[in-house]
Request: fold
Amino acid sequence: MPNYAINPPPVVTLPIEGSDAEFPVRRVYCIGRNYAAHAIEMGHDPDREPPFFFQKNPNNLAVGDSFPYPPKSEDVHHEIEMVVALKSGGVNIPVDAALDHVWGYGVGLDMTRRDLQGEAKKMGRPWEIGKAFEASAPVSALRPVSEVGHPASGLVELKVNGEAKQTGDLNQMIWKVPEMISYLSDYFELAAGDVIMTGTPSGVGAVVKGDVMECHVAGVGDLKVTVA
Reply:
């Protein structure tokens, strides 16, 4: 047995729908501005420019029915996303082979301290302070490809207190799932346990304590979270 200087941190896992098995998480990649309407609302040109990614930490993923409002922010936004979980990886993965590496899919929220992210953007600094805080990525149980296939179209919707705030379709993604996997593999060695958050449609907005967020991705699942 290894002689660790301190107790090693626990492995971060996500639940699997209908199973007592768990999916271990290695890395979390998030694509930015992957829906044209969202790119516009954030003040950017929606033309198909090269994709860009940022990362959350695996232990930013949160399972449960509550989202703790984070400190040092007064403008926390919801961003619904489809989540992709990989069973294998590699480098320079061709687009036409990329889906072979997918284990399954889920529904997630890329919660964002928008005020802190905005300050970081103005100063040309990384986004982690706005994106990679504790419990910043609530995620549903995953469902395997054997159950859901590879969803490429279908409703993506987020409601706050019963009112629709974000509505889009998976077919509106500028960069599709196989392209994201292929592109990432040109810059990183992907591996089993990697998770990709695939971008959010327009309509992002602030939440306050007590708000209930209901998320739905057609063919994938649902996620309901209360701001605590």
User: Anything to note?
Assistant: The two ends are 41 Å apart (CA to CA). The chain is about 15% helix and 30% strand.
